[in-house]
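Chapter review. Work through the record for 33 kDa chaperonin before attempting the end-of-chapter questions.
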Amino acid sequence: MSDKNDVLVKALTKDGMFRVYGLNATGIVSYVQKIHDTWSTSTAALGRTIAATLMLSASVLKGKESMTVRLNGQGPVGGMVIDADAKGHIKGYIQNPHVNLPLTQDGKIDVAKGVGKNGFLEVVKNQGTSEPYTSDVPLASGKIGDDFTFYLAKSEQIPSAVGVSVDIDGKNNVQSAGGYLIQVMPGASDEAIDKLEKTLKTAPSISSMLEKDPNPDHILDELFGKDQLDIVDHLPVEFVCNCSKERFAKDIAGIGKKDLQQLIDEDHGAQVVCNFCGKKYDFSEDELVEMLNNKDK
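Structure tokens for 33 kDa chaperonin:
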């Protein structure tokens, strides 16, 4: 699934002090909302995590590398699992899609309460080696942007600012989703960092910036000023699930003989549903019997 406006822009400030990323992922988050039937709090939590993961993967992965992000703050929405690669492909799901909490006092979706903060953010990087690299941090706030900022500082040792947003209307439709990731480069001056911190506090909301102009370049122009950036790349981003009947067949064939026999005797077949995209795969009784027979070979 792809949308022409779903783009991640990579850039460097002309003074070399900051590496920056801007993202519009409205189409992806809208699609995920539909396939998982998420309600507003769950949509915002999952959408923010997807946006943050897209920017994180673009900043730390290369080539054929990929990553899995797991985030669980023990809140009502439960855990989230997101898979992403260096090419802008992403997929994800949330444990409890039907969560719609009361709005905060200032009328915003209460993502922090939905996610909770008694938990962790874990990143597993698959870099082509025999063992993936895993690191995790406790959650900073459950608001997602703060949590990824904390992860980058602690696990990647990169001072950063992550801002993510999902705007949803009263009918549960995603109006905008995206964000920014700003990384401080070695040699950045204290003055430049102080100026950026002040800018981030007074800048328009991410949702208003995207709704004014869906091109994520606009976010970076608002934060740094026009003509202050050297654009490195515009990367189309999209929801991609690589599930298949063959993959799930291997999983079923890997269960114990007793459990496989039970599926044959009691259910006369099996249906597997992909957590990421919701696609269903049916296995007939004959297919299960063949798997069982192959175990004896």
